[in-house]
Design brief:
With about 500 residues, the chain is of the alpha/beta class. It folds into 2 domains: about 5-255, P-loop containing nucleotide triphosphate hydrolases (Rossmann fold, 3-Layer(aba) Sandwich); about 325-480, no CATH class. About 40% of the residues lie in helices and about 15% in strands. The protein has helices at about 20-25, 35-50, 65-70, 80-95, 110-125, 140-145, 155-170, 190, 205-215, 270-280, 300-305, 325-340, 350-365, 375-385, 400-405, 410-425, 430-440, 445-455; strands at about 5-10, 15-20, 25-30, 55-60, 75, 100, 135, 175-180, 195-200, 235-240, 240-250, 460-465, 470-475, 480. The strands form 2 sheets. Strands 2-1-11-10-9-3-8-7-4-6-5 form an 11-stranded mixed beta sheet. It has a 3-stranded antiparallel beta sheet with strand order 12-13-14. Strand 10 and strand 11 (about 240-250) form a beta hairpin. Helix 12 (about 325-340) crosses helix 13 (about 350-365) and helix 14 (about 375-385) runs parallel beside helix 16 (about 410-425). The radius of gyration is 28 Å and the shape is elongated. Keywords: ATP-binding, Helicase, Hydrolase, Nucleotide-binding.
């Protein structure tokens, strides 16, 4: 089961965006000023807010209104030093708070430095905090320029490096980059190339239309269609959207943007004589312009801000679950994990992607309680990949085998438990293919090396049997598998 968020309408009905797929494949939005990019991003943020943590890099303060409706923490970058931004990024991941980094009021050089420090904090968070997170960067050409501009080289390099890490290496850390730009030609190619989903809006320059057509797999002669798109209309393509170019009209939003276009206002009715006196009167004494004062927030007290990011309404503490309830909850989690692994190639997907998938499915199935942390998930995944049935835990000798597995790294524990179960039941020794699958690999050579490594740890002994078959015995437990063919499918 997947989480689909409705972005708007197509010719055939609702246009849905697969949120789980988006977390793994990233998104690029392109359109000239006034094409509706910010409206699209706002729609995406509002629809996905109940499902996933979010961080918005906001150079103009357009998205600060998300705080009132969805509880996002607004961090005014002008009130904080660059070093504080890195700590804030780390704490945002640790406490799983959705934030808007408001860069309004900073000159471009400082915007790049603060944004790169914040993205670095998100990227460098500890592995235990690699939970799924959408990272939306508006006006991405500012932070990942294709060429140098008016900013210093140090700021440009730092920002470009942070954006490259986000788009190229962020997926393994749970970070899904969503970048929006006015012009593809101004955006660094190595950043844009990492996106697998695209939403292209109204564009006028030939070079941008041609590049947008190339990204969508359209012919060059079809590129003229981008000139005729109305405001709020986009053409989408990608695994999270559609397998072929799909026209989409973005739906309405719940919050307002501070960057909305100005409306026409009637001119005042001023008599010519009065207008002459107003305009040509002696100039007023020059008053010094008051410097912009940052909000009265202690620069280093970011943790206090994070603690106040959610409504302060008192909540009654949840009662501790009974052993029966906890056992039922763990059973539901195990069943969901086994259902995940039954999907094609699921056992070979990266751990970070599988962990994100599990967290989303726990929300879908309304599984109460705190989700398993990443180390615990690795152990659960190793056991599930090994295919050890739950009733094996009822064996009186199984706790000893589980204790020995605990001495191994999480990703190898499932292999040991697979061998232990086969030995306890006197089943044929698992093949290299079965061992590789339990390890999350397709390599038979890696399976044989892993088997030899576990034997070096003094936990098992392997010996050959007739016909080229293999037997594995568990040291100290006197359990032994039946002869099995290493080359079996």
């Amino acid at each position: 089961m997947t989480v689909g968020i409705e972005m708007g309408q197509t010719g055939g009905g609702a246009a849905r965006l697969d949120l789980e797929e988006l977390l793994a494949t990233r998104l690029l939005v392109q359109g000239n000023s006034g094409s509706g990019k910010s409206h699209l991003l706002r729609r995406l943020l509002e629809q996905s807010a109940p499902w996933v943590q979010q961080a918005v890099i906001d150079p103009e303060g357009d998205f600060t209104s998300l705080a009132d409706r969805f509880g996002h923490l607004v961090i005014d970058a002008a009130a904080h030093a660059e070093e504080t931004m890195a700590a804030a990024g780390d704490r945002v991941r640790r406490h799983r708070v959705s934030v808007v980094l408001n860069l309004e009021g900073l000159e471009t050089d400082r915007q790049l430095r603060h944004a790169s420090a914040f993205l670095g904090g998100l990227f460098d968070a500890e592995r235990d905090h690699w939970t799924p997170m959408l990272v939306v960067v508006d006006e991405a050409q500012l932070f990942a320029p294709a060429a140098g501009g008016d900013v210093s080289d140090d700021a440009r390099r730092a920002s470009l490096s942070a954006m490259t890490d986000l788009m190229c290496r962020g997926r393994k850390r749970g970070l899904a980059g969503i970048i929006a730009t006015q012009r593809l030609a101004k955006l660094a190619k190595n950043v844009a190339a990492e996106a697998s989903n695209f939403l292209m809006g109204r564009t006028f320059l030939d070079i941008d239309m041609a590049r947008a057509a190339d990204l969508l797999g359209m012919e060059r002669r079809q590129a003229e269609a981008f000139r005729d798109l109305e405001r709020g209309h986009f053409i989408g393509l990608g695994p999270a959207l559609s397998r072929k170019p799909l026209p989409i009209r973005i739906g309405p939003v719940e919050t307002e943007s501070r960057g909305a276009g100005p409306a026409l206002t009637p001119l005042p009715q001023t008599a010519p004589a009065e207008a002459r006196e107003l305009i040509l009167a002696a100039p007023d004494p020059v008053q010094p312009r008051a410097a912009r004062r940052p909000p009265p927030v202690a620069p280093q007290d970011m943790l206090a801000q994070l603690a106040q990011a959610r409504p302060a309404a008192p909540r009654a503490p949840e009662p501790e679950p009974t052993p029966e309830e906890e056992a039922e909850r763990q059973g539901r989690i195990a069943a969901i994990l086994h259902a995940m692994l039954e999907e094609t190639d699921a056992a070979f997907r990266p751990i970070g992607v599988l962990y994100q998938d599990l967290l989303v499915r726990l929300r879908i199935h309304a599984v109460a309680g705190r989700p398993p942390e990443l180390p615990a998930f690795r152990r659960m995944l190793a056991v599930a990949r090994a295919g050890v049935p739950p009733e094996a835990a009822n064996d009186p000798g199984w706790p000893e085998a589980a204790a020995r597995a605990d001495t191994l790294p999480e990703d190898t524990q499932g292999v040991f438990l697979l061998l232990a179960h086969a030995a306890r039941q006197s089943l044929p020794c698992p093949s290299d293919a079965a061992i590789a699958r339990a390890y999350g690999s397709r390599s038979a050579g890696r399976a044989r090396r892993l088997l030899g490594w576990i034997e070096e740890q003094g936990l098992i002994v392997t010996r050959p049997a007739a016909g080229g078959r293999r037997v594995v015995a568990l040291v100290g437990l006197a359990w032994e598998t039946a002869p099995g063919d290493p080359a079996a499918a």
